[in-house]
Amino acid sequence: MVTGLAWDANHQTVVGIHCGDGSQLGADLVVEASGRRSSLPEWLAEKGWAPPPERRVLAKVVAASLTVSWPEDWDCHKAFSLYICKTQPHGKRGGVLLPIEGRAWQLTLAELGGTRAPCTWEGVLEAAKQLPDPTMHSVLQRCKPLTPVNNYGGWPNIRRCYDLCPLPRGLLVVGDAVQGLNPVYGQGMTVAAQTALLLRRQLTEALAGARDLPARRHRLAGLSGQAFQRALATDVLEPAWALAAGTDLRYPMTTVSGPGARRLPASLTATLDCLARVAQRDARIYGLVLAVAHLAAPSRVLLVPRVLFNLAWQLLKEALARASRRLLGTGAGGRGGEEQEGLVTVAAT
Question: Which parts of the sequence belong to the FAD-binding domain (predicted)?
Answer without folding.
Answer: 20-211
